[in-house]
Amino acid sequence: MSLPTALSIRDLRKTYGNGVEALRGVSLDVAAGDFFALLGPNGAGKSTLIGIVSSLVNATAGEVDVFGVSVLRERSRAMSLIGLVPQEINFNMFEKPEDILVNQAGFYGVPRRLALERAEKYLTQLQLWEKRNVMSRTLSGGMKRRLMVARAMMNEPRLLILDEPTAGVDIEIRRSMWSFVRQINQAGTTVILTTHYLEEAEQLCRNIAIIDKGGIIENTSMRALLAKLDVEQFVLDIDGALPALPELEGVRFTLVDPQTLEAEVPKRVDLSAVFAVLSAMGVRVKSMRNKANRLEELFMRLVDRPAEVA
Amino acid sequence: MDAHEVAASAAFGAREKWVALFTILRREVSRILRIWSQTLVPPAITMTLYFLIFGTLIGGRIGQMDGIAYIDFIVPGLVMMSVITNSYGNIVSSFFGAKFGKHVEEMLVSPMPSWVILAGYVGGGVLRGLMCGGIVLLIAMLFTTVRVANPLVTVTSALLTAIVFSLAGFINAVFARKFDDVAIVPTFILTPLSYLGGVFYSISLLPPLWQAVSQANPILHMVNAFRYGLLGVSDVSLVTAYGVIGVATVVLTAVSLWLLHRGVGLRS
Questions:
Q1: What would you report as the CA-atom Rg of chain A, rounded to the nearest whole angstrom?
Q2: Of the partner residues B2, B15, B105, the one whose CB lies closest to the CB of residue A56
Q3: Which of A135, A151, A211, B48 is 20 to 30 A from B159 in CA distance terms?
Q4: Does the domain at residues A230-303 carry the CATH identifier 3.30.70?
Q5: Chain A interface mutation, best of B15, B19, B30, B115, highest count of A Cβ atoms under 10 Å
Q6: What is the pLDDT of residue B6?
């Protein structure tokens, strides 16, 4: 018997009491084992979508199945397959991290002995074991985020939903969190991620959906999406005086300062041609980087609005 | 992992429900004990003062009420006042606190059915109500001899009353949007009804019209059922008292479950 789709959403609609139509017939499939990015500008409908999948928001119409189990008709069974890391910190600040985890496991029917074992496992993996007995409100912002990841793992979910889990977290902790989530995904858990950091989505996720104004505007593989980028912008650190701007068909050069040159290069032009023209002018390229994250560039074009993402 | 394994891991049977219920109960009890100075000490102090002032000092001059020494007469009412205010207060502050702090979402995203969540919180309210009632009963022993005329009526009336007011507290917490909202009902409804519910007097002292009006106060029936359990006397029929408590339990349970099922005040 094959594994059903991890998440199947059909014509999902949500209209709030104040008349705001947050979802206008969303359909989406996430394959079992996928690492899936769900991106969109603020107010696009991501949180409503995640809210309905995790049963915190009542749908107006449509169907949501988690591994073939209907969230709307078999809520209890469906919820036992999901782990949620919400956007806002939502644990009891007056409880200890270990108690928060053990209680969460209890809500999923995990016996206390097993819950204690899992709490030790996940607190250790997320570098929180030494903080297990402190009052949670005394934890740093990064620790609180990691505690929510550990809490979401207590029922060992088949589908882990991470709603901006690294917001406000420093780069070191972000990397350690992603390393942890990557391991969870490699062990077979399907992961759905929303994030402000698009380079993270680009590095981690295999498939992506972009939601805007309550509808899915793009749903494809990360590779296919990035292939749509027809122009890339590079920043080149150069060594040597540039007598004039280089000329190369299709490429637009801009001199930012005497040592920094920007180049907009269409996909059809090889980068070696750029290096060749600069070399012919006696200029050496010391280093080069993308001006903006590739996914970010695409995202901006698709949603057609200022840089306000995830 | 195939679809069979997924289906198996999606099971949430009787054993899992029991674990979940026990988890909420454990958390509620640990909260009651953690903040014991707010949960268990205040009724002890307040009721000690009631026994001292109304029982010993003033009660000595009042003499008897319905043929019973006044201090003995007020013991059941004071115990029930503690049961009522503490079972109500526990659930309203605990559940509203969970709503306000958003950690109620820990339960809402879990597989727990609504009735398990309700039973867990009501269980916590009942436990605190009975713990406080027990403490007041122990304090009463310092002032008078406490006897139990009918243990079954004593236990069931206290238990059912604690359930009724835990359910009422739960409904209050569901609708509350700010901390002021959880104080309105105890201040403007619960306390007046308790004082007018025959805690300190027999309604036989009232004119016939006010005796009839008093019958509409459910707390009167609860206090008198408990008084019957301890002292063997009551201003109201025991059948009517249990009828009122039973109807209140069924109606409030149905309303609470409906609110949870619809997610009123909890799910958007």
A1: 23
A2: B105
A3: B48
A4: yes
A5: B19
A6: 67
